[in-house]
UniProtKB/TrEMBL annotation:
This is Thiamine pyrophosphate TPP-binding domain-containing protein. Residues 3-101 form the Thiamine pyrophosphate enzyme N-terminal TPP-binding domain. GO terms for molecular function: carboxy-lyase activity; thiamine pyrophosphate binding. Pfam families: TPP_enzyme_N.
Length: 162
């Protein structure tokens, strides 16, 4: 939906310093552009739960990190998310890929469509669903609003176009 250059430019413009991520076939297409941007540091972790802790530590150290994971990683990382966002009350923002949202035929029976938004609601994450390329500015606006309010948030980016 978005090019790596668009995402790198957006993240640089809003002041993100570190992108903490797990290798992913869809979001991973943005890595090269992020790495070419001198103002962004790409931090690859092994598991999504680790991403929240690393981002929390970066924030406490004065950085402005962002977590970038797929929705399946959101499911895996719940306890770490709870600690960082709710117990520590750190305003970490996330870009979350919404697997199969645009084309369910790529993974018939994929339950990501059943659970992603209810899980975000259960964790009380203020998120915006992004389903079209024209919504790039909506990500920017939501990120800046969350940062201004010093609260966590997410942009959930539809994936799966065949």
């Amino acid at each position: 939906m978005f090019t790596g250059e668009q995402i790198a430019s957006l993240l640089t413009d809003v002041g993100v310093t570190h992108v903490v991520t797990v290798p992913d076939s869809t979001l991973g297409t943005w890595y090269a552009a992020i790495e070419r941007t001198s103002k962004l540091t790409l931090v690859r972790v092994c598991r999504e739960g680790e991403a929240w802790g690393v981002a929390g530590g970066l924030y406490l150290g004065g950085a402005t990190p962002l977590v970038m994971i797929q929705c399946t990683g959101l499911f895996e990382s719940g306890d770490a998310l709870r600690n960082v966002l709710h117990d520590w009350k750190l305003p970490v923002f996330a870009l979350i890929g919404y697997r199969s949202y645009l084309d369910q035929s790529t993974l018939p029976g994929d339950t990501c469509l059943v659970f992603t938004e209810p899980v975000l609601d259960a964790w009380r994450i203020d998120y915006r669903l992004v389903t079209e390329p024209s919504q790039l500015d909506a990500i920017r606006a939501h990120y800046l609003a969350c940062r201004e309010a010093r609260r966590p948030g997410a942009a959930v980016i539809a994936e799966g176009k065949a």
